[in-house]
Design a protein that fits this description.
Blueprint: E1 5-9, E2 13-17, E3 20-24, H1 26-36, E4 40-44, E5 47-48, H2 51-62, E6 66-67, E7 72-73, E8 80-85, E9 91-96, H3 105-108, E10 117-121, H4 131-140, E11 146-150, H5 161-173, E12 177-181, H6 182-188, H7 194-204, E13 208-212, E14 218-222, E15 229-231, H8 244-259, H9 261-266, H10 274-295, H11 305-311
Parallel strand pairs: 1-4, 1-10, 2-8, 4-6, 5-7, 10-11, 11-12, 12-13
Antiparallel strand pairs: 2-3, 8-9, 13-14, 14-15
Helix pairs in contact: 1-8, 8-10, 10-11
Length: 312
């Protein structure tokens, strides 16, 4: 049996923290996290052919991620986010973002689209002109591929909330797995309890919906299941939260693939039994361990397998 193959689609950018540029962007971080955990991963993104773009390309290749054809855009400048940390190490961002993927990209991906998992994320999934291509990639993915989505909301770039919600929910309907932060949930569904948000997302079609809650861990629900699963965060000294949600996402996807739970979530109409639920809960535990490692380090630094073992 061949090793599972991952395709991550979305923005890559430089995070500027204390005037120092670091590789960043939620989808890039997820791709690096998957590769560090030993999964064959390709990243389709949009970077310029400038100094920052070369830095990002070198970074992903060094981390073992393959950069898909069409990811480097001649004549474009590379996106960036200036991060400001508060006293608790929580980051806020000021963005200068370009997101361009040609509509023809899905047809040119070739074997890069012959994968076992497609993860799309953040601004790349909702900002035009590239968002149309992201939706087309999801639609063109093999029926056997797990589809995952993390909105990673950036309100200042997504336009009016009602319009952003329509775009976000269109992608949710095409996904098997959706992960939000509690801040994402509050922005998209203001005033709604987390449990209600989870059930609403599950009703849209995803078979697994997860909301992360920082030091409170996470809550998750499976479609057609009234029981909410609560995962406990690991105790850790927080350095900063940059990339924490992305590390949770890569840990979750790694867990779903490595336990075999991904096949259950992809199989339309298949009931989720007790053994399946146990595998999904194991994947969520791995995600929480991955996030704990990330927040214990400066910057976006997802774990390697040995780090997960130590965290647990």
């Amino acid at each position: 049996m061949s090793a599972p193959r991952m395709l991550v689609v979305g923005e890559a950018l430089v995070d500027v923290v204390d005037e120092v540029a670091h590789p960043g962007g939620s989808p890039l971080n997820v791709a690096v996290g998957l590769a560090r955990l030993g999964l064959e991963t390709t990243l389709l993104t949009s970077i310029g052919d400038d100094e920052h773009g070369r830095m990002l390309a070198q970074h992903v290749v060094r981390e073992g991620v393959r950069l898909a054809r069409g990811s480097v855009c001649a004549g474009e400048h590379t996106s960036r986010a200036v991060a400001t940390l508060d006293a608790d190490g929580v980051a806020t961002y000021d963005f200068d973002l370009r997101w361009t993927l040609p509509d023809a990209v899905p047809a040119t991906l070739g074997e890069d689209l012959d994968v076992d998992l497609v993860h799309v994320g953040s601004l790349g999934a909702v900002l035009e002109p590239g968002a149309r291509a992201v939706a087309a990639i999801l639609a063109a993915a093999p029926d056997t591929a797990l589809r995952a989505y993390d909105p990673n909301v950036r309100a200042q770039l997504m336009g009016p909330r009602d319009e952003a919600l329509v775009r976000v929910e269109e992608i949710m309907r095409a996904a098997h797995v959706v992960k939000l932060s509690d801040a994402d949930a509050e922005y998209l569904y203001p005033g709604m309890e987390v449990e209600a948000v989870l059930r609403h997302i599950a009703d849209l079609g995803p078979r697994l919906a997860v909301v992360t809650r920082g030091a409170a861990g996470c809550a998750a629900v499976l479609s057609a299941d009234s029981e909410v699963f609560v995962g406990q965060a690991l105790p850790v000294d927080v350095v900063d939260t940059i990339g924490a949600g992305d590390a949770f996402m890569s840990g979750l996807l790694f867990g779903l693939v490595s336990t075999g739970a991904a096949a259950t979530l992809v199989a339309a109409g298949r009931a989720i039994g007790a053994d399946d639920r146990a595998r999904i809960e194991t994947a969520i535990d791995l995600a929480l361990s991955s996030a704990a490692v990330a927040v214990s380090r400066a910057g976006a630094a997802p774990p390697y397998p040995a780090d997960l073992g130590r965290a647990r």
